[in-house]
Every structure is written in structure tokens, then in C-alpha cells.
Amino acid sequence: MTIGSPLSATLDTTPHRLLTGPGAALTWLLLFFPLWWVLGLGGLIFYLAAIPMAVSLVRRRHIEVPPMFGFWLAFCLVVLVSMSALNLDPANTVAENWWGRVPGAVYRAAGYLCVTVITLYAVNLTEREYPRRLLVNLLAWTAVVTVAGGLLGTYWGHLEFTSPVEALLPPGVAADGFVKSLVHPQAAQVMDFLGYEAPRPAAPWGYTNTWGNVLAITAGWVVVAAFCFPVRWGWRLGAVALLVIAVIPTVESMNRGVWFNLALGAAIVALRMTLIGKVWILGVLGLAGAIGLGLVLVTPLSTTVMARLDNPHSDDGRGFATSTAMEAIGESPILGFGSTRKAIGSGDSIAVGPTHDCPRCGGRTLGGNGQLWQVLFAHGLAGAVTYIGFFCAVLWRFRRDHSAIGIVGSVVMVLSLTSMFYYNALVAPAVFTMLVYALLWRNERDGALEGARR
Questions:
Q1: Residues 166-178 pLDDT 10s
Q2: Which residues pair with 186 in a beta bridge?
Q3: Which spans are transmembrane here (predicted)?
Q4: Rounded CA gap, 172 and 116, in Å?
Q5: Distance in angstroms (rounded) separating the CA atoms of residues 176 and 104
Q6: For residue 312, how many other CB atoms are within 10 A of its CB?
Q7: How far apart are the C-alpha atoms of 24 and 18, rounded to whole Å?
Q8: Which parts of the chain sit beneath pLDDT 70?
């Protein structure tokens, strides 16, 4: 696999250029994410980073809009229009005043807005200002951070602390469950569905599902950064070691979604490489799979895998939430309900809320068990068509890009479509997915410019 021209193989990594030059806001956002997490900004930093990025875009004489972005803008418009349905109370949901739903709806709309701004910011950086290789490296760094957080959650799963941002908030605000999920760092989500407390890695992304989603999106960029650019063999050995070590938190997360995503990603890479005549990838991926499987079989990780397969604890709850949401969508099929709702009862009980004997009873969020179900419920068929249409259009648009960026980028786009059945995308996974989209377009645009110069 190749990246393209010699221009993309050179990289100025001087601190002054990285931290103060063009694209510095993107570098600060990704390079220092562990710091933002410790400070209690992990759930807010994307929103904050979008502010200077928006200012930078406004100052430009011309803002380039990449191909197929119209689908995404149409989706964002549907998100805004669907908020007109916040006053509706669909069947089998908890009734409340419409203004109580405004904060959640505004938060999601702001999330899509910040994703849009970050995408356009990355797209409008030139190769000279911000080389593609730098963005690839930052995505690979994000994978490193995710694996490190996974190890932290695996071995120090009960670690949590009051962040500086959390300490500055009024006690009543800091105690709110939603606010706490944004500003309170914790290494893992501790669950007991196996009959004992089991930490499931979450750092630095807040939730185990988000952790797994981000890992699947960024893992391939470690390979691109280490093996598709001229780097020292020490870095390549480090990349291999990282991917081997990543097996531990991946298994211990008991996150079936990331298991499936990583396997699917490898299959897509194998297929695309084989189609362009590079059959050797089958041997490499086969060896990697054998090493990973062997590591699981000869270590206690196999016990974790079997225990998870024997305890599909979330299946009933997800099924209840999905069926209830789909029954309700008939009351507002085109625009949905503008935001999520709480269900009356659950698959475990008709109780409106959780009890001591049934902590998972009642009040389950409709639209909280996957991006597809959230888009359908909150934004209706119009939202689903524009959202899915965007990723399908991107896949079609860049189907002939057989470079490393093109192949790994196509994997990420496919995962955005499969993950929507079991992962929610806002906000970190959506940002990384859209950065990959920006990278795909820049790879075509900047590669063509470099070819014209030669």
C-alpha cells in the first residue's frame, strides 16, 4: 500500500509548527486528549475546539465544501427541523413538558454542528499547511491513547476522581448524571452481569461502547502510520506490540461490537487488497489473526470471552428499546420526535424507574441503543435517509482510491454503517469518522495537485 507522492512523506514535527501553525486547533484537540480527560473536559473538548475552528473558517475568503457533504448538511437541517416535534408524547413513553427535552435536543444538535465545523476545518487545510501524514499520525495516536485507557480500565477499573472542572461546578450541577458523565473521569464502567463486578474499559471516552467504537475507527491508522511511510523499524515494532497488547482490553471490554468491527475491518482490507492483486495481505492478516486467537486461547482471556457469550445481558433491553421506538415512530414517521424519550417500563418490568431489586427496570432511553435507532426515532425517515445516504455516497465516491488512506478510510465508512445498529456516534466517534472522510477527500484533492506539479 502506498500513500502517494514524496511530498506526503515529509513532515515538519517542530513544536512551534505543530502547536501554533495552521491546523494547530486540530493538533491541540487530538494530541492532548489525555490532558483534557484528566481536567474533566473529555466530554466537552470537541465542542470547545470547534469554536476557534469556526473562527478560522469565517476568516477564510473561501470555504471548500467536499464532495457528498450536501447529504450531511441535509441531515443537519433535518435535525434542526425535527425539534419542532419536541412537544409530542408518543405511546408508551414518559410524558413531560417539552422544554424539559430542549437541553438534550440542543446538546445533540450542537454535537452535529461541531462535527460539521471540525470536518470543514480539516478539509480546508492544504497539504503544505497540514500534511495528510500528520492527520494520519494523530489518528494513530488516538488509537494509542485508546489502548492505554483500555489497559487502565482493565487493571485499575475502579479508578475515578474528581476533575478540576467538576470541582468548580456547583454541587447540585456536578451531581447530575448527565453532567457527571461529561466531567467525571473514570477508567471503566463497572458492571455485574456476570455475577460479579467486572470493570469494562472506558477511558478516556466515558463509555465502554464509545471506547470500542473509537478503537475500531483508529486501529487501522496505526498500520498506515507505521508501515506506509518511511519510519524507523523501532516504530514499526512498537506498532506491532501495540496491536498485540490491544487484544487484552479489547477482550476484557466484553464489547461484542468491537470484536465484530475489527473482524469486519480486517475482512474488508483483505478483500480490497486482493482485488488489486496484493494477495500477500491474506497471509499477513491470517498470521495476525492466528496470533490474536492464540493469545486468547492460552491466557485467561478465553474465560472472559466464554463468560460474555454466555451472558448476553443487554440483548433483551436493546430489543425492548428498539421495538418500542419503532412502534412509536409511526406517530411521526417523517421528522421523528426531535429527541429521545424515556420508555414506560422495560423488558424486565413495567416499573417506570429502576428499583433496588431490578436496577435495569423502567425508563430506558428510546434511541439510546444505536445511532440508527436514535436517528429514526429523533429525526424520522428524513434523518435516516440523509444520514445513511451520506456514508453510502462517500463509499461510492472514493471506491477507486486504492491507496492506504483509501482502503482504511473505506473500512471506517463501512463501520459507520454497521456500528449504527449498536453504537451511538456522538460525539467522539462521529468526529473521528468525519476526519477520516476529510482525509479521503484531501487524499484525492491534494494527490491530484501534486501529480499536476510533477
A1: 999 999 999 988 8
A2: 160
A3: 35-57, 69-86, 106-123, 135-156, 210-229, 257-275, 282-302, 372-396, 427-444
A4: 32
A5: 13
A6: 11
A7: 6
A8: 1-13, 16, 193, 195-196, 310, 312-316, 345-363, 448-454
What is residue 196's three-state secondary structure? coil
Give every CB contact of residue 64 below 8 A, 6+ residues apart in sequence.
Answer: 120, 123, 124
The amino acid sitting at 355 is T
Report the amino acid identity of residue 172: G
Q: How far apart are CA 249 and CA 359, in angstroms?
A: 26
Contact 10, 118 (CB under 8 A): no
**What pLDDT is attached to residue 200?**
94
Q: Which of 117, 96, 104 lies closest to 46 in space, CA to CA? A: 117
Q: What global pTM score does this model have?
A: 0.91
Q: For residue 132, with 0-12 CB atoms within 10 Å meaning exposed, 13-18 middle and 19 or more buried, which class applies? A: buried
SS3 341: strand
C-alpha cell at 218: 483508529
Neighbours of 351 (CB within 10 A): 15
Q: How far apart are CA 137 and CA 439, in angstroms?
A: 12
Q: What is the CA radius of gyration of the chain?
A: 22
Beta bridge partners of 198: 191
Of 244, 285, 259, the closest CA to residue 407 belongs to: 285
List phi, psi (to 5°) of 201.
-50, 135
Cell numbers placing 8: 506526503
Grid cell listed for 263: 473482524
| Cell numbers placing 200 | 469494562
The tens digit of pLDDT for each residue in 52-68 reads 999 999 999 899 999 99
CA 216 to chain centre: 8
- Please state, in angstroms and rounded to a whole number, the distance separating the CA atoms of residues 401 and 1: 11
Half-sphere exposure of 264 (CA within 13 A, CB side): 19
Q: Give the integer Cα–Cα distance in Å for 196 and 394.
A: 44
Burial of 333 (0-12, 13-18, 19+ CB in 10 A): exposed
Helix ranges, 246-370 (H): 247-252, 256-275, 280-297, 301-310, 315-328
Q: Which cell goes with 193?
A: 452481569
Measured CA to CA in angstroms, residue 6 lies from 21, 182, 438 at distances of 22, 42, 20
Query: Given this model, what pLDDT does residue 6 score?
Result: 37
Residues present in the chain in total: 454
